[in-house]
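Posting here for the record, re: heme C.
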Amino acid sequence: MLQTNKKKYTVIALIIAVTFASIAAITPPTQPKERNLKVLPKDISHDSLDHLMDYYKVALSVKCSFCHAKSVTNPKKNDFASDANPIKDITRKMILMTDEMNAKYMHIITHPANDSTALQIVTCNTCHRGKAKPDVADLVIK
Ligand code: HEC
Ligand code: HEC
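Prediction output follows.
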């Protein structure tokens, strides 16, 4: 339980970090790394990228290959840098949308200082809740 919470907070902290890092990434320091990153910070550490990808996988209940294309040379492997899978670009838009919601709108909601449930952050899971396409039944006002 404690472990689960710890993991949850690590992921939340990571999302916040990525949100601000991608804002800061408007003027990025040019890195020699050959990663094909168009929205995430170009200097993101290997560990942070790993955690974030695992988070997307869980938030949508999908495999890495849902977003990543197969390698042309070895179809048993994913080619993570490839943009051949259109879902990857949809995800980039989703990342930008989520960042914008947090940067522009979430801070306007105020909470009492002692409200420990106040997250004030939108994540993929806010909408997706473990589904690749958010379930309409979750969204409809009853
Ligand atoms: C919901 C879609 C999604 C899922 C699931 C996902 N990824 Fe990604 N991944 C992306 C996107 C989008 C990018 C590019 C981000 C950018 O352009 O800044 C990316 C980039 C990467 C990169 C960097 C590739 C490069 O350019 O060098 C690696 C490595 C990676 N993902 C690994 C994984 C692994 C491993 C998994 C499974 C645990 C995974 N991804 C699951 C969407 C996803
Ligand atoms: C405000 C709600 C919301 C947030 C936040 C959100 N999404 Fe989405 N996402 C949607 C909706 C709605 C769709 C379209 C579902 C459909 O077509 O039925 C969608 C579609 C997608 C798809 C395409 C699925 C498919 O099968 O075509 C991917 C991939 C995706 N989102 C990834 C993400 C990721 C990763 C994040 C976090 C960075 C995220 N989304 C954040 C609402 C959201």
